[in-house]
Design brief:
The chain has 419 residues and is mainly α. The protein is built from 17 helices and no strands.
Amino acid sequence: MIGSRGYVLALLTLTAAFNFVDRQILGVLLEPIGQEFALPDSLLGLLSGIAFAAFYALLGVPIATLADRLNRRNIIVICVTVFSAMTALCGTVTSFLQLFLARIGVGIGEAGTMPASQSMLSDLYPVQERPSAMGVLAAGGNIGLMLGLLIGGWVNEWFGWRTAFLVAAVPGLLLAVTLYLTVPEPARRSVAEPRKRWLRETWDGISLIGRVRSLRRFVLGGTLYGLAAYGIHTWMPVYYIRYHDLSTGEAGTAISIIVGVLGGLGAVAGGVLCARLSRRDLGWNGWLPGLAILISVPLLIAMLLTDNTWLALSLFVLPGILSSVYAGPTWAIIQELVPPGRRAIAASVYMLIYNLIGLGLGPLAVGVISDLYIPSLGRESLRWAMVSVLLVSFGGVAAYFRAARSVTADLEALRALRS
């Protein structure tokens, strides 16, 4: 039913999906782009990391401040229109610099969608149901990753990488129109608060992370895992192309099924499971992501080191399922650890840190380390660079487990202060 919370959740999940299509399509196109422009791995890492992440992360905070004040639906519509148009522009470039600037434009457009979406869902779903809703929203990323890899991989083989960008841009423009015409702005649950000056309000939102112990730990856990996950997933198509002789279409299809389909199901299941477990103990918002990461890392290391293609794909299945389990619980608990009127800004501050370090440095770190390893490891350099960055995940596990132990006490203290 149009306007119902389920309908809104579905469209916001599609927004997250198209966000990821335009963000992640570059991963499966790195090899042909690198060959055309004769780029080393370090520049490919720069293109897939900082070129997008810096503006995406930095602009998310001021846009989220506006989302806490203004119509969130309209902000999402504008952002979807911008990132879709800039994705189309990526298909028209003739140099590395032009592509770098176009990717910055994609990052600018995508900056405001996720904080505003999380804030809207927090007004539509009570705290007990929020991990499930956020898990569905997180699955949008897996759906987008799947579509981006499929579109990028096969359209590149049939028509070239420029056409792949053009094809990927169309659905987002159609979605922007649908959102504007059919999704109302939900009523905010919080009582209106006196508004401070915009810059002061932005700074207060940023400082929330430093004031709440569990909030710091959840942000650190998600960020460290994000650095490893983005580093691995961005380069995964290149890994299968270089070491297992798959084409862009074959690599895109295999990864899209594992991370896109199975990972999306894992994100939803993780949110539902966390919602049930957290009714008894909110610490499960930390325990569940930490356990999922801890199980995944050894399997991913084994996958990266094998030369057997079928074994590599098999070892990737369980980590693919668990890859997005962390997102729903993390997003949900962050929304609960801040005042209702600061939810969009809290989400954006998390995304700022997560994307600057995770998305910005993860792919770049793999590319730079790969180039540094070439003198001693030669063709094996990328494989071992991915393993090196993956080890950062263990720091994320430690942070999540510490957050699990402190979150209940911190929430009780915060509720006492607000009452």
